[in-house]
Structures are given as C-alpha cells and as structure tokens.
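Structure request: YncI copper-binding domain-containing protein, Mycolicibacterium aichiense.
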Amino acid sequence: MAFRRVATRAVALAALLTLSSWTVAATAGAHVHVSADHAVRGDYALVTFQVPNESEKGVPTTQVTITLPNVASASTDVMAGWTATLDRDPSTGTYRSVTFTATPNAGIGVSQFELFPLSIKLPDADSVSFPVTQTYADGTKVNWDQPPLPGGGEPEYPAPVLSLTAGPHEPEEHHAAPPATASPSVSAAPAADAQAPTRGGADNTARALAGGALLVAAIGVGVALARRRT
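Returned structure:
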C-alpha cells in the first residue's frame, strides 16, 4: 500500500505538470477536467480530476462529489486538507460515487484549482462520463453533468468525459493482491538456508582452533627434542 500511495502521488504530480500549461487561475469558462495515466477500457487506472473555483462571490469550494459508473474497484489517496468517502452499492458491491470534503479552514480558494486522484477499474466502453457536483462554502452547488450539445458543441456545465482505448492492458501481477503468509513447511527451507552461513562460520572456527593446537604441539615437541640433545 505504501508503494501504491507513492505511485499515486507521483502520477498526480505528473498530471499537475501537464495541466500547468493551462490557465492556472480559474476564470469564467473554466471547467472540470479529467485525465488518466492508463485510459484502457476494462483496466485499472489512476484518474485525476481538475476542479477550479469559479465562485463569483469569492468563497472557497468545500465539497466535490464525483459520480462513478458503478465501478468494481475504487480507492482514494490521502490528501492534506480533505477527507474522502466512497459510496458503495450494498447489493452489487460496486462503487457509485466518491465525495471529497474539505477540513476546517481548507478548500479550493479563489483563482485556484485542486487535483483529486482516484484509482478505479475503468468500464469496458469507448468512453466514460463522470458527473461532478461542486459545493461552495455559501451553499451554492454547481452540477457538471451536461452532455455535449447536438453537433458537438459544449454546454455551459459539461460533464468531464474520458475517452478509452482498447489496450494494451497492464500485466495482471501489477494488480495482484499481496502474497499470503507462507506456511511453516514452506518457510522451513529458507530458515535452514539462513542458518547455513552460521554453520560455515562455526566449522571454520573449529578448524582454526585445531590448526592452532597442532602448531602448539609441534613447537612443544621441538623444544623437548632440543633439550634432550643438550
């Protein structure tokens, strides 16, 4: 999980650098945008939402609710100044939405935006829409949920849409669960191997002591013979 958290933050930072080419200050006409590090249909991805503050009254955004297309898997990262709550359908087990709520004295300030990363399993479709409800500190709500206009025009409050491709898929082991704890019979062999250097060290010590004893004995014999000759 720690590795996944570091990876999540790294990709979110990369998305921030990509989005920095846009206007940083949230001005009239700015919209909620969505991007992904791996936009492949039916696969896992880190999806990042860019939410600007468009309040004409100069109040911060204090809550953001993102509607999910009943995805099978969803998780959030730890974000300073925000708490996240996932809404799950109790009958199907799929995730329907995620709500980010600002902690006291936090939120998206005037002329600012925030990035909300979310790890999910994408649906098997050509594209996916994520309607967003943005709530300001004064109670004002903006629903980013309008589909494209006939002819491809953009509505006033468009829902962020992510286009998906057919592949390639990531290797399955990238999303596998952590291995289960090994049984005592399995862990016995590595334990024996771990003790092998200790036995080798003991054998070497014994050999060194034996060699030293032989050397002392040889010196003693030599001294005794020398005394007999004198």
